[in-house]
Give the backbone structure.
Amino acid sequence: MKLKISIIAMVFSLVLVGCSNEKIVKEKDIANKNEIQGKIESQENSGSNEIGSSESVNPDKDEDIEFKIYTADVDDTNKIVEFKTINLKNDSSIEEKLNELLVTLKKDYFKDEKASIFLESIDSKGIATINLVDKEAWSQYFQGSTGGIISQSTIIETLLQREYEGEWIKGINVLIDGKKQEVFDHAPFEEIFYRQ
């Protein structure tokens, strides 16, 4: 009889402990759900789409980031202005981003079928070499001091992306028809243009 009572008491205590543990787990789940719901509501109120401060500092790799096409102001060629903004994938390589910038420059700014611009390489020091192909076609953009400065600034400032805070090139080396040569009087390309 004592054995039966002991067994019943043990089974009853296991049932009570099990119910108690289940209640604790449910309470923790409810607390976690309330915490997540609170974060979602505070984000909706603030207009943010991100949970936690670490995610806002490190954007998703798939997220698009803005790059700008720059040019010089016609009235003050020392002043660099934004011509256009384009969105590029954050997880694209530097080469891919530079190539997208070059395509946009050719298509939306220079708009010339003959004048081509290509990324040749990026060396170990972070210097990107670009090639302006067909100097005769390019010469129309470098006529006169104002035209030369504006075209040179458009190419150099767009590729240097001085305001971009991510990993980027250190400078630009410009070739004309595959050679380091000076053919545009008002826009010398003999030197390397550094980002800083």
Summary: Residues 36-58 have pLDDT under 50 and may be disordered. The CA atoms of residues 65 and 128 lie 21 Å apart. The radius of gyration is 31 Å. The helical segments are 2-46, 53-57, 94-110, 135-139, 144-160.
